[in-house]
Design brief:
homodimer; alpha/beta; Aspartate Aminotransferase, domain 2; Aspartate Aminotransferase, domain 1; 2 domains; seven-stranded mixed β-sheet; 14 helices
Chain lengths: 389, 389
């Protein structure tokens, strides 16, 4: 074969659904020499990571660790450990990630009860009540922040309904964690997974998870082994715990990165970080609407970190995204599933959520839309956004 | 919580069972800014990685990709995709990793036929014949390089036996790949997995896998979905293939690292790399034996990259390894399973396999053993090793 040359990646402004941009301190952490995964210094690093993850999840859960795979591996971890064959499992589906959970529930031999909610809408207590009226699930699964649509589901009332029905509650916080409040203990969430490449602004590759005592009790009472060895929490608990029983070899460098990104999150402070995400989101929406674009999600139901906007009639999806990438080095996301070709997804996650990025993406979109013949008032987007920044 | 300080990892000489040391070019590649996982430049990087993985596996297999998890995730990928519930699966067990495969086979609902071989011995054609005499497996699983013992199993005759019996052949090459010949096509191996943190000298976090046409045919003829969504090869094929169908978000930075480590492997050249591993192994063994230590594995059956040596009577395992780590910053591995407390495992993998490391670990061991009251002739180890370096 012909020799492959040196890597030459163009620096991009990442305003898609993830990965988000990564702070130079995190990049630098990854260039540290490797250490052994059972080295006392690495064990200390694992302890520190668990402590910081607990702070970000706002939980005291003992089992709060990072799974050695991406967010989807975290989803699978929660499901394969909490479901035994034949268990009834209720999944609320309002986008791609609820659909994915449903798929995995069936692969686990769970009896799936699916509550479908229109894409772009959050899951409401009424939706869940309908599902609970026709089932007696052992587990209720809800996506907090639907990355495929930008809808924000309020969890507390849903958790209460699930608990009243005698079910455990599983939350997907892949996109929400570290971008808006995620209060595992206060809300009573029993199991939760997230990803590193969204509002934590760490490269993809790990999936933080946390299990409550009730979830651990269910897990310990299993009659069968979880179907995955790699994601078996009872074994991972011993690897991340004081026993340090060899399981797999933890991705050392990714754990360096996660530790540094968690430090950055806590240095900024959760409240300040959430306020920054809210402010930049509001400015972006004001700008997009002033340009004549329409948001997919209704006001009050919109995520701060993922903004879905309808593609106007007559405007070509691919041409616009390609121009943004080639002429501005800006990545935004296309639509998924029901929204393929119909919406753009503009992410403002972690390090990507800045004043400058809001302004830049509005300028770039104005340029691209104008070339597509879309009529707009020049400068209106920037003017509206600037007032809020 | 109290703020967690800056990361301060002591540089180590990694001579354990993995991770191995990483070339500065690989560390530098990981500090490159993140790009999107569907960015045209990242898609190009995935293509280049597949091409280089094929060169290292010595295969033309179309489906040759890196799984987004560590070596154990690669093991699970091969098994969950190739096994359907009720399938008879023969696993040759001569250490920890055959044991692990057996565990996963049962979690997949496979009917396990286990052929046990003494720890420290390779699997022979006679061993496999015994197993085939009492079963009619659809899949035969063998570990090429048993990291828990240092035994090297020769695969070609085993592959032929499996094929004659109508079974597919799965090989674990986690520790062997890029350290000794691994010839997937010439040997006729149907499915193979490896890890990045051994002789590829890339941080842990990805698992290269490759599937032959026969394996893909079995996979496509499945009546049931594989039990893992995250590791479903039919979906991963579309993500890594021309379709680029969104599956999970690939670990961008780990893929940067793998690409650079593969470039380094191919720049050195496979034959030169294998010769280096062989030379350093022989020198280390000569040194250890001259010091009066005894190897676990018989001559002719020893791996070049993982050297198991018996801990002499009266010498304390933990004290020696602790001294090596604290006074020399050298990590060597302890024993696993049957060899816990009874053997050390000295890895000479990838960047860790150097003349200087062989000399240094012999000096350090001489110091530690002498402190433990073990009688040896000072300098004998170094002298014997130097002749071969």
């Amino acid at each position: 074969m012909q020799a492959i040359g040196e890597m030459n990646i163009t620096p991009r402004i990442l305003l898609g659904p993830g990965p988000s941009m990564v702070h130079p301190r995190v990049l630098r952490a990854m260039s540290a020499p490797l250490t052994g995964h059972l080295d006392p210094e690495f064990l200390q690093l694992m302890e520190e990571t668990k402590e910081m993850l607990r702070a970000v999840f706002q939980t005291g859960n003992f089992l709060t660790i990072a799974i050695s795979g991406t967010g989807s591996a975290g989803m699978e971890t929660c499901l394969v450990n909490l479901i035994e064959p034949g268990d009834e499992v209720l999944v609320c589906v309002n986008g791609v990630f609820g659909t994915r959970m449903s798929d995995i529930v069936e692969r686990c031999g769970g009896k799936l009860v699916r509550v479908d909610v229109p894409w772009g809408k959050p899951v409401t207590p009424e939706d869940l009540k309908k599902g609970l009226a026709k089932s007696k699930p052992k587990l209720v699964c809800v996506v907090h922040a639907e990355t495929s649509t930008g809808a924000w589901t309020q969890l507390p009332a849903l958790v209460n309904l699930a608990h009243e029905a005698g079910a455990l509650f599983l939350a997907d916080t892949v996109t929400s964690l570290a971008g808006c409040p995620v209060k595992i203990d206060e809300w009573g969430v029993d199991a939760v997974y997230s990803g590193t490449q969204k509002c934590l602004s760490c490269p993809p590759g790990l999936s933080p998870v946390s299990f409550s005592e009730a979830a651990m009790k269910k897990l310990r009472a299993r009659k069968t082994k979880p179907q995955s060895w790699y994601l078996d929490v009872s074994m991972l608990e011993k690897y991340w715990g004081q026993e340090r029983v060899y399981h797999h070899t933890a991705p050392i460098t990714m754990n360096y990165a996660l530790r540094e990104s968690l430090r950055l999150v806590l240095e900024e402070g959760l409240d300040a970080r959430f306020a920054r995400h809210e402010r930049n989101h509001k400015a972006l929406v004001a700008g997009l609407e002033a340009m004549g674009l329409k948001m997919v999600v209704a006001p009050g139901e919109r995520l701060w970190m993922l903004n879905s906007v309808h593609i106007p009639d007559g405007v070509q999806d691919a041409a616009v995204r390609s121009l943004l990438l080639k002429e501005f080095n800006i990545e935004i996301g296309g639509g998924l599933g029901d929204f393929k070709g119909k919406a753009w997804r503009i992410g403002l996650m972690g390090e990507s959520s800045t004043r400058n990025h809001v302004l830049l993406v509005l300028v770039a979109l104005e340029c691209a839309l104008t070339k597509q013949g879309f009529k707009l008032k020049p400068g209106a987007g920037i003017e509206a956004a600037s007032k809020l920044l």
